[in-house]
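Aim 2 progress. For Biosynthetic peptidoglycan transglycosylase, the working sequence is reproduced below.
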Amino acid sequence: MVKKVLKVIRWSVGMIFVSTILAVVVYRFIPIYFTPLMFSRCFEQMSNGEDVKLYHEWIPLSEMPKSMPVAVMASEDQRFLTHHGFDYQAIEQAAKEHLMDGKKLRGGSTISQQTAKNVFLWQGRSWVRKGLETYFTFLIEMMWSKQRIMEVYLNSIEMGDGIYGVQACAKQNFGIDAKNLSRGDCALIAATLPNPRRFSSKSPGPYMRKRLRQIENQMKNIPAFPKEH
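Predicted structure tokens for this construct:
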């Protein structure tokens, strides 16, 4: 009986492993129209008695302004092009600030980690979810190019209440297609990303304007995002 149970467990673990690999391989090539985050937000809206809002339109990286990847790297992950999914320098610095200065421990999630979480996992904080996030981050860094990770990130990231991806954000908040966003517009969108349901790129306040100026200055030190070869 014990052998049968162990066999079922091994078979189940093997199937889960194979299915995750397959999902990552498939998502390397096809547009991702829905994510767990989108479904989660829709259920939240329904449970709160609100109308369901879901604005999302997939576009390739080539149809986004060149400033958009640069802006999110300046805001969220300045070593995106050089790390392999995890920014150990940022993690070490955050730990030092927490231990020496008593500052609140920052998350320090990279663009790769945020992409893995948004596309493959549920929201929330637990060791199980964090472990799976690490696993999927490793997989996408191994199987996807940096260009594909950025493309998926900019199409799936939450950019407002019910707004996902740069094309939907451009249409809802600026009334234009993403390709027509200015450098300043891109920096403003990036400024909202720590909390896009609290901060709006449509009606930015003084804090957002300050963040915008900071990101525009940081963008000067970020290299142009390379094309995929």
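The chain has one domain: 31-220. This observation will guide construct design in the next reporting period.
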